[in-house]
């Protein structure tokens, strides 16, 4: 692969690609120095003392992604990703070397073209990106000080090249469909039998004197009228199920029970990008125009974006260079209901297409003939749910409501960076940057008048955010080399401000159908607005030295002040020191031909985190605008600790980098140890109506993350016609709480305690099913319940157990943190063909599958049932892990416990592509410099412990009925003129 070093103006130099060499022919190679983006500049990769992972433009351009962060999924060791939802335009959540905070953000700092970027990255066209750099340790991140505790992601956009011009067209079209299969659920025939069985067994428990025949008859008589309400078979209600058997003469009157079918399908994706780059001896430019339209696989979910970018640089004087980066985009989209924040909502389509019993149709049917009913104009008539069981959303219809309701968001983005770079002396450069980001969003929600939350009246809401942020920095760099010595000194100042305007309004009582704006509604129900501001000021400096690029030293320091904290604790210092030894340059190794690079590096430093949800955490604040009788009033909303300050993360890192056998084997073995001190934590207070939330945020805890990372790359085959490369990343780490404000804190399914990790499950201990009677069994908490003669207490295989879930023993049940996770990718080039694939994997860790638990209820009352219920206990002596179905004891069987934990291991084909590059001598005859055709896919295959499970949904091991990630397959071409 012939590679030419590209000097990119605006003070940004970088080189992309996996291999770090230029190949003159099949036998001779020449090294090219790889230059990577670092904090406030660039640096030779060979002189780094920190951990820096780079993803180049080639790895981004052909992938069907709408948010550039999606390219980091599987990009390197230590990068853990929780997948974004299937909502088009959504991003992902990223953890770099574990979770280091509890109540503040764990997301990394985003830097775009040298300045912090607080906006949404779906506003930036991925095809405009030249490189992504992930800075993982303190030596790499400490120049960003108080914002760098969670790592830093540096995004560099494309710029022009001197004395060249090129037009590039990338276009693709594809489809978006559901990737995660639905849980396997029973059909109508089995459903009625299972519901009948739970009712019969419950009757036997509540009326033990009654004979079995009478209990059977009672269940048959009450199955429909007393529980499920609807009979979809053509036999009388009382004879539908007799003695536990479905009537052999029963035939379905209709069979449209799939609530997902009207809502879940296939969306179309279009992505078109046109760019023009060029320049002369003094000026260069890059401009692009992009259009993206992605339809989700859920009805009324999509994302549309039009973007325009212009990057320009000019050497106006021999000592003065000026440049700018301008980006503008307008996006709009229909937003599907967020299944995470609305997990139990009646308008959550992922919940109710899954949970609806297989005997209910979304549509109205003639109760006698079963024929579907239509309105006078042929319109579909939807069922409002009057004849459904109590667990089947009576009075609601997720299909009808989704089609009638509207939720749209329009977003307007503008980002502008300008810089001036002055060469004061041959070794001394001064650079100043100014950046402005604007993001305005307007969300419109309409709720219909026919069914649902605003039945009979209708409602509308508007939520608007107007965000502006400003960043100015000034950086002085002194770069000097003499003999074998080289050093770079940097000093700078930076200040930033972020302003947010918020406006919300809600009205009810729609005056006329089709009027969706506020003027079409009568009652002003709610209106509110707010403006918030936060600022930060910083001074920083660094010193880097190397001797013959063999012995490396680096040090940096930054002082930050944040308006989030009181003036007397506002300033804090953050620093790092790093060292490296390129052992392969020593005489005793340099003569070993098999070793091309052997480098030992290490670092230690401290960085910070102030990313609290509150912008004023040191101030006790009040909510305004409350009615206080006939007078306006205020109410206390937060009690603050005025001394609250930064979290500090102390990090140490040591790594061995190697390149062997003419660089055909490359890798890194790395160990890190980080400790977050003064953990920002909501400290519980005694129950007191004077303290909202009964907690006060303060600095009280410590948590550590220790782990190993392995990176290996191998050129398996490498000649003029074939090149096969395999890259693998792996990470293993442990999280441990080392300090808490009290002995323990229970938070949902987790219990925080010194010596445990943040994601350790604390649950009732499930024992199993008693083979004699099918009872659900839990390990007994003998400390709290010492009466061993109680009727619910049993001894099974020497273990004391109970049939009462309230007496179950709580214990630690494992952790959501995996034992090992990573990625394996491969690229095969055979002449003009190129095939690539990337697999994500995770081994170990646990996940609490509440979605599955909701399908395993022991008393069916209209909600769906998993096929595993067919394995329920029915006969004495039967060995099974599914308790008896019983309407009386169902609450005992379905309680939250370790029963619902499942191994979170999985292997996933994250992406793959196949491309063909036409020979240049073929396409040049039609005025084209290059042409490539390709097919690319995301989320192609998954193997996990249970169908329906989305094991990578979150970091904390919980799942929600949410819009799961989509499978996207696209066909496209890339060409240059």
Could you give the topology of this structure?
Elements: E1 21-23, E2 29-31, E3 35-38, E4 41-44, E5 52-56, H1 58-61, E6 79-82, E7 93-96, E8 109-112, E9 115-116, E10 129-135, H2 138-141, E11 152-157, E12 164-178, H3 188-206, H4 212-222, H5 224-228, E13 241-242, E14 245-246, E15 267-279, E16 283-295, E17 302-317, E18 320-334, H6 349-355, H7 398-404, E19 406-425, E20 428-447, E21 459-482, E22 485-510, E23 521-547, E24 551-562, E25 571-582, H8 587-590, E26 595-609, E27 621-628, E28 631-638, E29 647-660, E30 665-684, E31 695-718, E32 722-739, E33 744-747, E34 750-753, E35 760-764, E36 766-769, E37 776-779, E38 793-796, E39 799-802, E40 810-815, E41 820-830, E42 833-843, E43 846-848, H9 850-853, H10 890-893, E44 901-903, E45 906-917, H11 920-923, E46 930-944, E47 966-976
Parallel strand pairs: 8-11
Antiparallel strand pairs: 1-2, 3-4, 5-10, 6-7, 8-9, 10-11, 12-15, 12-47, 13-14, 15-16, 16-17, 17-18, 18-19, 19-20, 20-21, 21-22, 22-23, 23-24, 24-25, 25-26, 26-29, 27-28, 29-30, 30-31, 31-32, 32-41, 33-34, 35-40, 36-37, 37-39, 38-39, 41-42, 42-45, 43-44, 45-46, 46-47
Helix pairs in contact: 3-4
């Amino acid at each position: 692969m012939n590679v030419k070093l590209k000097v990119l103006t605006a003070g940004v130099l970088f080189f992309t690609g996996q291999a770090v060499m230029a190949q003159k022919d099949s036998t001779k190679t020449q090294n090219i120095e790889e230059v990577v983006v670092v904090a406030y500049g660039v640096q030779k990769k060979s002189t780094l003392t920190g951990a820096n992972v780079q993803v180049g433009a080639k790895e981004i351009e052909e992938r069907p992604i709408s948010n550039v962060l999606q390219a980091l999924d599987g990009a390197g060791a230590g990068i853990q990703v929780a997948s974004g939802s299937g909502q088009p335009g959504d991003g992902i959540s990223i953890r770099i070397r574990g979770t280091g905070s509890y109540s503040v953000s764990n997301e990394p700092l985003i830097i775009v073209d040298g300045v912090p970027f607080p906006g949404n990255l779906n506003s930036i066209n991925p095809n405009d990106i030249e490189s992504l750099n992930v800075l993982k340790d303190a030596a790499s991140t400490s120049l960003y000080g108080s914002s760098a505790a969670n790592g830093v992601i540096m995004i560099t956009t494309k710029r022009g090249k001197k004395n060249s011009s090129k037009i590039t067209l990338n276009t693709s079209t594809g489809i978006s469909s559901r990737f995660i299969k639905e849980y396997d659920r029973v059909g109508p025939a089995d459903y009625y039998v299972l519901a009948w069985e739970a009712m019969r067994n419950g009757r036997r428990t509540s009326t033990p004197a009654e004979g079995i025949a009478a209990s059977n008859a009672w269940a048959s008589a009450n199955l429909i009228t007393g529980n499920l309400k609807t009979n979809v078979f053509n036999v009388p209600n009382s004879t539908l199920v007799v003695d536990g058997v479905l009537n052999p003469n029963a035939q379905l009157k209709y069979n449209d029970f799939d609530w997902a079918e009207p809502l879940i399908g296939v969306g179309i994706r279009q992505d078109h990008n046109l760019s023009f780059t060029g320049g002369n001896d003094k000026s260069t430019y890059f401009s692009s125009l992009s259009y993206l339209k992605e339809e989700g696989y859920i009805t009324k979910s999509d994302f549309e974006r039009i973007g325009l970018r212009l990057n320009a640089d000019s050497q106006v004087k021999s000592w003065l260079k000026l440049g700018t980066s301008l980006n503008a985009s307008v996006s709009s989209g229909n937003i599907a209901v967020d299944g995470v924040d609305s997990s139990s909502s009646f308008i959550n389509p992922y919940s109710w297409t899954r949970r609806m019993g297989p005997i209910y149709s979304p549509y109205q049917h003639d109760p006698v003939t079963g024929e579907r009913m239509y309105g006078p104009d042929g319109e579909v008539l939807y069922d409002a749910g009057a004849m459904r069981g109590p667990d089947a959303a009576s009075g609601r219809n997720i299909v009808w409501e989704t089609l009638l309701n509207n939720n749209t968001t329009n977003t307007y983005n503008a980002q502008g960076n300008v810089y001036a770079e002055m060469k004061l002396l041959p070794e001394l450069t001064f650079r100043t940057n100014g950046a402005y980001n604007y993001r305005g969003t307007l969300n419109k929600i309409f709720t219909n008048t026919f069914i649902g939350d605003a039945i009979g009246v209708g409602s509308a809401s508007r939520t608007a955010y107007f965000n502006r942020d400003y960043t100015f920095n000034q950086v002085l760099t002194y770069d000097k080399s003499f003999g074998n010595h080289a050093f770079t000194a940097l000093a700078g100042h930076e200040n930033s401000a972020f302003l947010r305007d918020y406006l919300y309004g809600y009205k009810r009582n729609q005056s006329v159908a089709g009027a969706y704006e506020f003027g079409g509604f009568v009652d002003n129900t709610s209106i509110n607005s707010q403006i918030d501001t936060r600022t930060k000021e910083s001074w920083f400096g660094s010193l880097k030295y190397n001797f013959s690029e063999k012995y490396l030293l680096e040090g940096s320091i930054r002082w930050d002040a944040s308006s989030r904290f009181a003036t007397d604790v506002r300033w804090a210092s953050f620093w790092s020191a790093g060292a490296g030894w390129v052992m392969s340059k020593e005489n005793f190794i340099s003569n070993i031909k098999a070793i091309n690079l052997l480098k030992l590096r290490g670092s230690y430093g401290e960085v910070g985190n102030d990313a609290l949800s509150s912008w004023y955490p040191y101030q006790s604040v009040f909510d305004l605008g409350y009615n206080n009788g006939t007078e306006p009033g205020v109410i206390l909303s937060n009690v603050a600790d005025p001394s609250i300050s930064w979290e500090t993360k102390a990090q140490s890192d040591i790594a061995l980098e190697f390149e062997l056998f003419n660089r055909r084997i490359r890798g890194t073995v790395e160990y890190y140890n980080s400790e977050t001190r003064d953990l920002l934590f909501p400290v519980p207070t005694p129950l007191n109506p004077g303290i909202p939330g009964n907690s006060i945020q303060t600095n009280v805890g410590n948590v550590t993350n220790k782990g190993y990372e392995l990176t290996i790359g191998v050129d398996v085959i490498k000649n003029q016609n074939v090149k096969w490369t395999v890259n693998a990343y792996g990470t293993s780490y442990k999280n441990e709480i080392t300090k808490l404000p009290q002995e323990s804190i229970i938070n949902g399914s987790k219990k925080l305690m010194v010596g445990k990790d943040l994601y350790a499950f604390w649950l009732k201990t499930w024992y199993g099913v008693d083979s004699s009677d099918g009872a659900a069994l839990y390990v007994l908490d003998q400390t709290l319940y010492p009466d061993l003669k109680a009727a619910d207490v049993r001894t099974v295989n020497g273990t004391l157990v109970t049939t009462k879930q309230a007496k179950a023993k709580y214990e630690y049940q494992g952790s959501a943190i995996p034992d090992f996770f990573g990625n394996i990718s491969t690229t095969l080039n055979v002449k003009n063909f190129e095939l690539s694939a990337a697999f994500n994997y995770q081994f170990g860790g646990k996940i609490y599958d509440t979605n599955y638990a909701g399908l395993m209820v022991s008393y069916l009352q209209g909600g769906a049932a998993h096929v595993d219920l067919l394995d329920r206990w029915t006969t004495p002596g039967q060995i099974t892990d599914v308790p008896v179905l019983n309407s009386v004891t169902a609450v005992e069987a379905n309680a939250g416990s370790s029963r619902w934990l499942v191994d979170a291991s999985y292997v996933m084909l994250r992406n793959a592509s196949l491309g063909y590059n036409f020979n240049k001598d073929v396409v040049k005859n039609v005025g084209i410099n290059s042409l490539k055709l390709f097919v690319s896919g995301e989320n192609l295959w998954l193997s996990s412990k249970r169908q329906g499970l989305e094991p990578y949904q979150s970091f904390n091991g919980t799942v929600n009925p949410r819009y799961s990630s989509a499978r996207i397959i696209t066909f496209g071409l890339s060409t240059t003129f």
